[in-house]
Amino acid sequence: MTAKKEPAGLSLRLVAASRLRAVLSGDNFVALGANDIADSRDRATANRLITMALRRHGQINFIMHALLDKGLPGKSGSFEAVLRLSLAQLVYLPDLGAHSALFLAVEALKRDKKAQHLTGLMNAVLRRAQANSAKYWSLSDDLLIPETFGDTWVDAYGEAAIPAFTDALIAGAPLDLTLKDNDPDLIAALGAVPLMDDSVRVETRDRPVEGLPGYAEGRWWVQDAASALPARLMGLEKGARVLDLCAAPGGKTAQLIKAGYQVTALDADAKRMERLKINLTRLDYEAETVTADAATFAPESGFDGVLLDAPCSATGTFRRHPEVIWHRMASDIAGRVSVQRALLINAFRCLNQGGVLLYCVCSLEPEEGEAQVEWALQHLPDLKLLPIGPDEIGGDLAGAVSPDGLLRTHPGMAPGRQPGGMDGFFVARFGRH
């Protein structure tokens, strides 16, 4: 007897629901790869559904509240993840078809013993959503930013910046690369546009990163334009010994090597350090690598420069990871602030007199940026602020430098006057006297 064939599109829906469910439980989103879904078109559709559900998370929250009179049912397995994917399709991805959204949602629940009793509820909710899709499409973009951050960001960046934040959230992040050499032929082959210094942007591509020109030859590495700024500010002579703390996956390490420094790259995560080593091998770059705790690492001799890219809330990365702004709470940020201070103390200990310390975080939160500078200057003797000059960043981003010489980028900024925004990054430069 021939086995009954699964409905078209069901397999990718089940895989997408599983990945989204993990993210809703607190995991960071990692795009589905060939090992998850072999067919490239199906994989692209599944990733598109997940990312749309995550980018529109706040608006989908509103829709679910309006449609579920009694709220989400408890102990309901994959119900929430399947519902969010289906609402994303119905309201924000109409080109994928309304019928498949309803049909595949019900079929997906039938495969889940903890949710199969809710197929009737799913069908009713989605039919109501379909009937009101035009109304839901016009929901305010203010819903996209959780209350946890809304007021803080208005205070820090001004009310006019918030629409740019939501635009960046919906659009997602283009692919930024740092080049080993500024080769116009390579830039043309990549279909890239120059941003600043050795950063370029690839707006669209028809192949995975590993298939792009120059990857196999180690002629560039993936690095957001904002992430590429800190290492350029070290300002030491070639041959200086520089410690890169919390270094993996190695983008800043590669920049420091390219600048001519003798680099020691340190990270506590052994798996991430293996990835750093692989990346450096592809680039034909060499660095001393150390797997250790950055808060307790005690080198035999000090360094001329230390770059500390500290663990943080990562709210500045929401174009790539929209889930972070829904996962983070005030208590999470407070915990990270404490870790950052411990790392700053040890970074200072590792620094020679006359050396340069760069502190950076991919966070939009003042507690992890400006407030940490105040703390460091009060608690670390002989540490002085070395103001960053607007001319060091370039004309397009000169406004990212504060009067005190602190650098702060955000997703509403346009490096090289190109669309697509950039990560939120904070950078402060210190000297030890």
From TrEMBL:
<protein>
    <submittedName>
        <fullName>RsmB/NOP family class I SAM-dependent RNA methyltransferase</fullName>
    </submittedName>
</protein>
<dbReference type="InterPro" id="IPR023267">
    <property type="entry name" value="RCMT"/>
</dbReference>
<feature type="binding site">
    <location>
        <position position="293"/>
    </location>
    <ligand>
        <name>S-adenosyl-L-methionine</name>
    </ligand>
</feature>
<dbReference type="Pfam" id="PF01189">
    <property type="entry name" value="Methyltr_RsmB-F"/>
</dbReference>
<dbReference type="InterPro" id="IPR049560">
    <property type="entry name" value="MeTrfase_RsmB-F_NOP2_cat"/>
</dbReference>
<keyword id="KW-0949">S-adenosyl-L-methionine</keyword>
<feature type="domain" description="SAM-dependent MTase RsmB/NOP-type">
    <location>
        <begin position="154"/>
        <end position="433"/>
    </location>
</feature>
<feature type="binding site">
    <location>
        <position position="309"/>
    </location>
    <ligand>
        <name>S-adenosyl-L-methionine</name>
    </ligand>
</feature>
<keyword id="KW-0489">Methyltransferase</keyword>
<keyword id="KW-0808">Transferase</keyword>
<dbReference type="InterPro" id="IPR001678">
    <property type="entry name" value="MeTrfase_RsmB-F_NOP2_dom"/>
</dbReference>
<dbReference type="GO" id="GO:0008168">
    <property type="term" value="F:methyltransferase activity"/>
</dbReference>
<feature type="binding site">
    <location>
        <position position="267"/>
    </location>
    <ligand>
        <name>S-adenosyl-L-methionine</name>
    </ligand>
</feature>
<dbReference type="Pfam" id="PF01029">
    <property type="entry name" value="NusB"/>
</dbReference>
<comment type="similarity">
    <text>Belongs to the class I-like SAM-binding methyltransferase superfamily. RsmB/NOP family.</text>
</comment>
<feature type="binding site">
    <location>
        <begin position="246"/>
        <end position="252"/>
    </location>
    <ligand>
        <name>S-adenosyl-L-methionine</name>
    </ligand>
</feature>
<feature type="active site" description="Nucleophile">
    <location>
        <position position="362"/>
    </location>
</feature>
<dbReference type="GO" id="GO:0032259">
    <property type="term" value="P:methylation"/>
</dbReference>
<dbReference type="InterPro" id="IPR029063">
    <property type="entry name" value="SAM-dependent_MTases_sf"/>
</dbReference>
<dbReference type="InterPro" id="IPR006027">
    <property type="entry name" value="NusB_RsmB_TIM44"/>
</dbReference>
<keyword id="KW-0694">RNA-binding</keyword>
<dbReference type="InterPro" id="IPR035926">
    <property type="entry name" value="NusB-like_sf"/>
</dbReference>
